[in-house]
Amino acid sequence: QKEVEQNSGPLSVPEGAIASLNCTYSDRGSQSFFWYRQYSGKSPELIMSIYSNGDKEDGRFTAQLNKASQYVSLLIRDSQPSDSATYLCARGGAGNNRKLIWGLGTSLAVNP
Amino acid sequence: KAGVTQTPRYLIKTRGQQVTLSCSPISGHRSVSWYQQTPGQGLQFLFEYFSETQRNKGNFPGRFSGRQFSNSRSEMNVSTLELGDSALYLCASSLGRGGNEQFFGPGTRLTVL
User: Fold this and answer.
1) Tens digits of per-residue pLDDT, A2-15?
2) Which of A25, A35, A83, A93 could form a disulfide with A48 if both were Cys (CB 3.0 to 4.6 A apart)?
């Protein structure tokens, strides 16, 4: 079982719809989670960090964390063609092995 | 605040050569992590430097090495290049140790011929 798993997609949604991206993780001790957006040929860009159970909203983006079920999701409301990118999920580490553990990413295509 | 900078942005080398890549983190950030990204492989962690010390290392051969200077700037070196080393090399800086929010530079695209 991979430590952080994401559906590779592609996830295709029409413009204006809600895109829902999901990520599951295996380490129950994980405390911090991050969503990054990566456009083709570019570097990842941090869009959301979440540390507590529940929802965190930032503009059109909402991150949802459920530690009991070990999943974190990203909702993108009113999806725009400019949201078409690969979305990477990462969980933070702790202790001496403090590094981010990454999923392989979900490709999102927003169709005009 | 200026972001993370990486130089050079593009490199073309031949097999057997060596290469040095540079990364300047965001001002005040003390941790620099390096990643290799190839299509279909995702982000592969190379190593993390914090306060001039390597704190974590990924599963890469010894041909890959790095260092960090007192101003937090970091370099990574790849010796005896192989075709499979062709990739996007990314560095990311963070305020504290690498398990926190990381901010990426634009990357160095290395092509090995």
Assistant:
1) 789 998 889 999 99
2) A35
User: ∠ at Cα A33 (B59, A59), nearest 5°?
Assistant: 135
Q: Is A64 on the interface with B (CB under 8 A)?
A: no
Distances B62 to A41, B66, B79, B81 between C-alpha atoms, Å: 27, 10, 9, 12
pLDDT value at position B34? 98
DSSP per residue over B68-105, as a string?
Answer: E-TTS-EEEEE-S--GGG-EEEEEEEESSSTTS--EE-
Per-residue model confidence (pLDDT) at position B97? 81
pLDDT tens-digit readout, A40-68: 999 999 999 999 999 999 999 999 999 99
Per the CB < 8 Å rule, is B103 touching A34? no
Contacts of residue A41, defined as CB under 8 A and 6 or more positions apart, other chains included, come to none
Q: Pairing between strand B10-13 and B108-112?
A: parallel
